[in-house]
Amino acid sequence: MLTPASDGLCRALPCETRPRKRRKPLITRILIAVAAVAVGATTVIAQQDAIAARKALMKATGGQTAVGSKMVKGDDPFDLAKAKAVFAT
């Protein structure tokens, strides 16, 4: 009597002697892809917020530097409240 393993049909039919290949389920692959996209999107959003925050900080610093330099040059009279605001910024 011929068995699938002995007559060469092992490729066409499942055999008990050949180990089965385990494939990752499709849902696992989808979840990994979604997680990768989420991490990438979060990184991009975080970088955009950092750039906007840095631009706002630089504008505030530049404005306060102008106020301080006018007081140092003598163009504007010394004001303690403005000086404290310059150093706080």
Structural Rg: 35 Å
**Uncertain runs:** none
Cα(first) to Cα(last) distance is 92 Å
Number of domains: 1
How many individual β-strands? 0
Secondary structure class reads: mainly alpha
Mean pLDDT: 78
Q: How many DSSP helices?
A: 2
Order of helices and strands: HH
- Taken as a percent bin, the fraction of beta residues is under 5%
- Major sheet: size, sense and barrel closure? none
Q: What descriptive keywords fit this protein?
A:
mainly alpha, 89 residues, rod-shaped, single chain, 2 helices
Detailed description of the structure:
- This protein has 89 residues and is mainly α.
- Helix content is 64%, strand content 0%.
- It is built from 2 helices and no strands.
- The protein has helices at residues 26-73, 80-88.
- Helix 1 runs antiparallel to helix 2.
- It is rod-shaped and about 95 Å long.
- The mean pLDDT is 78.
Provide a brief overview of the structure.
The protein is mostly helical and 89 residues long.
Which helices and strands occur, and which strands form pairs?
Blueprint: H1 26-73, H2 80-88
Helix pairs in contact: 1-2
